[in-house]
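TICKET: design request
STATUS: open
ATTACHED STRUCTURE:
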């Protein structure tokens, strides 16, 4: 009991100090707006000293659904405002009912207090609805080396183009295969109240972050894997190729997600290598890939193809026009 109280005390100190920190955001701006940054996802890497993460789940109620063979997902775009540096960030959550299991997405952000500014839902048919907060905005915190659990958000249509949103806190669903003491997460907290839900590596990882992860005890987290993966992509937007650089930059934000589709497959087929080709249609109204078709390639693993398709449709792009293009990925172990 004394040990648990001690953990509560030191973590409470870091929760308060989180409001004082700022951090770089090495991701491209969204939609050409310098005041909104597209948030990259987090897959267990070490957080920077003044960085943390968050996760949530979304339940969409009352929206029309499409046929199961339709690859268009329901997309939720959440704009949040950092109360320290006044920077806006865009989080994209994709809901796919045709997947056998739900995919939990985690995002990494500067440690700070945030307000929810806008929520946009784009349904299977490309209909856009939004809720803009001007008063009674929902606030939450992201604290250093911790994950903020934002619970379950139930979102439904309201009126012609509006949304109604209900926030419900739930117990943390975050899990790791390795022992908790080896985690890169200090703890999971209730993002709305700051209350600790579950302690993982605790003060150890916070101290290591403050020292730049240079101690010998942290050597395990700085070593590179012995299996190096090469992933390259080719993008052809035909008459819109002058947009290719900006769209490619947003693809790079999700590099780890796309690369994971291939590395997971290597556990099943160690010799897997080659390319996967798609044709795509991008919509300026929704800001994402509204239709994607698998065109072939030497990698024929269906799980790799579906994983790539799912992740590609979760990405928001700076689109000023509707575009048709071709996108090809090549993977190999080097």
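STATUS: resolved
RESOLUTION: sequence designed for all positions
ATTACHED SEQUENCE:
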């Amino acid at each position: 009991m004394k040990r648990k109280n001690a953990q509560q005390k030191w973590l409470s100190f870091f929760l308060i100090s989180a409001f004082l920190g700022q951090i770089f955001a090495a991701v491209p701006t969204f939609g050409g707006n310098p005041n909104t940054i597209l948030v990259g996802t987090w897959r267990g890497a070490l957080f920077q000293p003044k960085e943390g993460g968050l996760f949530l789940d979304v339940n969409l109620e009352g929206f029309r659904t499409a046929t199961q063979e339709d690859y268009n997902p329901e997309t939720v775009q959440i704009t949040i405002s950092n109360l320290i540096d006044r920077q806006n960030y865009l989080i994209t959550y994709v809901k796919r009912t045709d997947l056998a299991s739900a995919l939990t997405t985690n995002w990494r952000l500067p440690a700070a207090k945030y307000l929810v500014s806008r929520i946009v839902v784009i349904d299977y048919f490309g209909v856009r609805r939004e809720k803009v907060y001007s008063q009674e905005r929902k606030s939450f915190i992201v604290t250093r080396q911790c994950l903020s659990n934002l619970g379950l958000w139930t979102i439904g249509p309201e009126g012609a183009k509006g949304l109604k949103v209900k926030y419900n806190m739930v117990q943390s669903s975050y899990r790791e295969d390795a022992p908790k003491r080896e985690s890169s997460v200090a703890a999971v907290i209730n993002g709305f109240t700051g209350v600790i839900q579950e302690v993982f590596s605790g003060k150890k990882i916070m101290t290591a972050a403050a020292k730049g992860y240079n101690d010998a005890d942290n050597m395990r987290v700085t070593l590179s894997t012995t299996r190096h993966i090469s992933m390259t992509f080719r993008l052809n937007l035909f008459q819109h190729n002058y947009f290719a650089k900006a769209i490619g930059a947003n693809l790079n934000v999700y590099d780890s997600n796309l690369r994971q589709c291939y590395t997971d497959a290597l556990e099943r087929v160690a010799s897997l290598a080659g390319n996967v080709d798609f044709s795509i249609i991008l919509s300026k109204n929704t800001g994402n890939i509204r239709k994607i078709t698998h065109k072939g390639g030497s990698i024929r693993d269906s799980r790799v193809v579906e994983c790539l398709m799912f992740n590609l449709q979760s990405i928001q792009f700076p689109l000023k026009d509707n575009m048709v293009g071709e996108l090809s990925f090549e993977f190999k172990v080097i």
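CLOSING REMARK: The first helix runs from residue 2 to 17. Confidence is low (pLDDT under 50) at residues 13-33, 98-103, 218-225.
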